[in-house]
Amino acid sequence: MATGVPELLAKFLLPEKLVLALLETVSLVGIKFALTSKASLSAKSTHRIIAVGMWWSFVNNFVRCLSTVWKVHKSLDYTNKFFFFSLNANLSVVASLCAACLVTMYLKNGKAERELCAMVGAYIVLFPVLQVFAFNEESDVNKTNMVVFVVQAVLGVGFAYFVKHYYNSKYTIKPKK
Where are the transmembrane segments (predicted)? Predict the structure, then answer.
């Protein structure tokens, strides 16, 4: 999943990705606590998913991306790095919404179904690889790396769409005709 591009594959460090997957698991536990807090229990579940997912994404991106985007913006040099950080921030929003939806499905179900466990496992493995893209902080992101990242982002959005569709099919009340 890292990429098929040799220069990026050389920078793909499996131990680093395993630590990121562990951190993503801890993040899911944090989202569970945010979704079950007393303040959020009075809202509809779809509103809770959106609120917690957006807030989680904001907190993750604020520190990580703001300084770099600000430096690039002030220099008026709209390089590929600026577009990379924009895409990465948007992918983080998708990942956080997806995580909030998965945790909500687990909380509503009360037990872990096989499909839900598979989706959570895929999330834990997929999004750390997608969100933390290997490139040199000092150099620009070349076009090959950007194309590969866009393909990976499309895969992440496709996975999130599948989770949304699964949530709607299982947990949304359909009106009777």
Answer: 82-104, 116-134, 146-167
